Amino acid sequence: MFERGETAWPPAVVRDRVGIRVSEPVRLRDYYRRLGAEAEVIDGEWVRVEGDRHAIQQYLQSWSSINQIAATIAPAPVVGVPVACASAAPRLRLGDLLLSKGMITDGQLDEALAESRAGGDLLGRILLRRRWIFEDELARTLAEQLSIPYVNLRNAGVDYAVASMMPTETGLHFAAVPIGVVGDRVRVAFADPCDQRAHEAVCARFPNYEGVVAELSDIELAWRTVAHRNRI
Predict the structure, then answer these.
(1) Nearest to 175 by CA among 228, 132, 212, 145
(2) Which of 18, 59, 174, 224 is the most exposed place for a label (fewest CB within 10 A)?
(3) Which of 44, 55, 217 is nearest to 128 (CA)?
(4) What is the pLDDT of residue 144?
(5) Domain covering 16-78 assigned CATH 3.30.70 in the classification
(6) How far is residue 178's CA from residue 164's CA, in Å, rounded to a whole number?
(7) What is the per-residue DSSP string for 170-190?
(8) pLDDT at residue 193 above 60?
(9) How big is the CA angle at 44 (ends 42 and 48), to the nearest 5 degrees?
(10) Residues facing 42 on adjacent strands
(11) What would the pLDDT profile of 14-48 be if each residue is shown by its tens digit?
(12) The CATH number of 94-232 is which of 3.30.300.160, 3.40.190.10, 3.30.2350.10, 1.10.10.10?
């Protein structure tokens, strides 16, 4: 049954995937589904809705007004990247996050960024190599700040058949590895889930994926295992 003010969901000329942050995500998801839209809860406090972005926003304004529930719509279309990461405005960067947490200094960040620009290596790898941060410290901080799961790959394991769906060179370069399937989505572990280049590389293979955070050494070990299994 429709809530007051609801009408049928219009056909989308352009299909966007829009992230909405709300205190009652299940209720909002069900509202869009009753309208005929595709909607799902992501990471406990976000709802991803597929359809025309303008229509999604109009219905959200009506729902929020009627139910007196505040909701925040992500400023950019959400594809596969974790919604908490995609919605940051401006985009949350690893260096800024660690700096705000007091885990590195301004000087260390400047030096690491210069090395990253010169050599093309990931910022997280440089910080770890210089021993300015610890791996578990980095992974758990990212997970907490972005409200996405942290996964210990040594305990949770990796589905190597799924991991093999991505080229090893790509996964190693971007520090990301597919680790399994959850529902209809591939779960991908990132060392830095806010790395836009890593997101684009993963989306090229898995347009609709679920992102989690894992430690860099565990991701690299997973890829070494994949390479070893492929040689057997």
Answers:
(1) 212
(2) 224
(3) 217
(4) 76
(5) yes
(6) 8
(7) HHHHHTEEEEEEETTEEEEEE
(8) yes
(9) 25
(10) 46
(11) 456 788 888 888 899 889 888 888 888 876 677 88
(12) 3.30.300.160
